[in-house]
Amino acid sequence: MGNGVQLKGDEFVTLVLDRNFHFSLGLSPWAFWTIVALAILLIVIRFAGPYLTPRSWRAFEIDQAQFGLGQQKISLRPNETDRQIAYKIWVELSTRKIGLPIDLDDDVITEIYDSWYNFFSVTRDLIKDVPVSKFRRKDTEQIIRLSIEVLNSGLRPHLTKWQARFRRWYERALASDESATLHPQDVQKTFPDFAALKTDIETVNQRLILYRDKMYELVTNL
């Protein structure tokens, strides 16, 4: 090719035009390694960025005993995906009867059960919407598993024991002549096992309120 004509050059980049009008670009060793370092930095930020922010590295602990799920304590360092999951669960718990204090002098048990059932469905959908790539992260997996445990070990035992029995009795009680002048709240108190049901439903309610509060703490864990 022979000698080329240098159009632009310095210690960083050199651009040369040869006699056949072909361009060639030259990089100094310093320029080359600078570009390599920047490329590595961009890759690190792209894939590890969410885990490297100061906020994501703050430890957070959840005591499962508070929810009646055993004595295990979960220690994790939540990232933005974890907080998004916790936020959605907190909203559902805060806007439904399931995460608000129950007062059976005013609340109707069948309506509470309806709210619990809807929470089952919504929480399942929230969990299913989490991409599998996010689930592979250990801390995210633990939050999802805890939510499933709250459904299966927190809610399900009460519903299995009481819901069908109470609903069947309640429908008949409401249709009876004796209940014609009574409020639904007064009718439900005549359920033969009302005291035991009341104790159980309030226990579950208190645990769900703690669960709601813990999800809020996780969202705001700065």
Helical/strand content category: mainly alpha
Q: Helix proportion of residues, in percent?
A: 55-70%
Rg result: 30 Å
DSSP strand content? 5-15%
**Order of helical and strand elements:** EEEHEEHHHHHH
How many H/I helices? Answer: 7
User: Biggest sheet: strands side by side, in what order?
Assistant: 1-2-3
Overall outline: elongated
Number of domains: 2
Intertermini distance: 63 Å
Q: What would the average pLDDT be, to the nearest integer?
A: 78
According to DSSP, the number of beta strands is 5
User: What low-confidence regions span 5 or more consecutive residues with pLDDT below 50?
Assistant: 4-9, 53-57
Can you summarize the main beta sheet? 3 strands, antiparallel
Summarize the structure.
With 222 residues, this protein is mainly α. Helices cover 60% and strands 10% of the residues. A hairpin with a 3-residue loop joins β1 (5-9) and β2 (13-17).
How are the SSEs ordered, and which strands pair?
Elements: E1 5-9, E2 13-17, E3 23-27, H1 29-52, E4 60-63, E5 73-76, H2 80-95, H3 109-128, H4 132-135, H5 138-175, H6 184-188, H7 194-219
Antiparallel strand pairs: 1-2, 2-3, 4-5
Helix pairs in contact: 2-3, 2-5, 2-7, 3-5, 5-7
